[in-house]
Design goal:
With 241 residues, the chain is an alpha/beta fold. It has one domain: 3-Layer(aba) Sandwich (Rossmann fold). 27% of the residues lie in helices and 29% in strands. The strands form two sheets. It has a six-stranded mixed β-sheet with strand order 6-7-8-3-9-10, with helices on both faces. A four-stranded antiparallel β-sheet has the order 2-1-4-5, covered by helices on one side. Helix 6 links the parallel strand 7 and strand 8. The longest helix has 18 residues.
């Protein structure tokens, strides 16, 4: 009897997304009719030059921004029909964010920075567990000023994953780091995706990072120009750039 292939489950379904900004007398079309699905448990890298629409798309998926037109569904929720309170709840319950800059509170230790999220999450892991996951069990009582850039970024990742989000959205997570440190940070993101099954989207201009993804989405001038699948993902420690 032939084996039945189970189709992947779409966590996000985006159709016809446009985003238009009006700056003074200038109109900027950041997205021009984007269609995209993201599937449960996969790692997707979004590649493109500055101004290609990567961050705008990520912000819409994360509920930080809304499209000018088009529809985004997260599971059975139409994000484009939600009000501000509903989007805040969506971000709190379902999404973890990692940005280029770490946004840690300088007066709080690593443990306390992570606890800011665990205190408001419904089913969090302990701050200590999250910091151990990113390799900082011995540094959790240090302040940001006592940590290297890579360690601060790993605290930011621990903070993002401590609430056990369904989705981890990373915007240029290695942009402020040197190559060696960047590989360590990508290794942490890779482990979160593989070990926790967290659907992960990473936007970058660094093409080398695409080798660790299940799929690579290329953007240019506000459009998805190509989607590629990797037959085999490499580990983050194999990355060279």
């Amino acid at each position: 009897m032939p084996t039945r292939t189970v189709p992947p489950v779409a966590v996000f379904k985006a159709r016809g997304l446009t985003k238009i900004y009006h700056v003074a007398e200038t109109t900027v079309e950041a997205l021009r009719g984007v269609d995209l699905d993201l599937y449960a448990g996969e790692c997707v890298v979004m590649l493109g030059p500055s101004g290609s629409g990567k961050s705008t798309l990520l912000n819409i998926l994360g509920g930080l921004d809304v499209p000018t037109s088009g529809v985004v569904h997260f599971r059975d929720h139409d994000l484009t029909a939600e009000d501000d309170d509903a989007l805040t709840l969506y971000r709190r319950e379902h999404v973890g964010f990692v940005f280029q800059f770490y946004n840690l509170i300088p007066s709080l230790t690593a443990r306390e920075n992570v606890a800011l999220v665990t205190d408001i999450a419904a089913n969090p892991m302990a701050a200590e567990e999250a910091l151990a996951l990113v390799g900082l069990a011995e540094r959790m009582d240090h302040f940001p000023s006592q940590l290297s850039g890579g360690e601060q970024q790993r605290v930011a990742i621990a903070r993002a994953v401590a609430k056990r989000p369904d989705v981890l959205l990373c915007d240029e997570p290695t942009g402020a780091l040197d190559v060696r440190t960047g590989v360590l940070v990508m290794d942490v993101i890779d482990r979160v995706n593989r070990e926790l099954g967290t659907t992960t989207a990473i936007i970058t201009h660094n093409a080398s990072i695409s080798r660790m993804a299940d799929r690579v989405v290329h953007l240019s001038d506000g459009r998805v120009t190509q989607v590629e699948s990797n037959l085999q993902r490499c580990s983050a420690r194999e990355l060279v750039w």
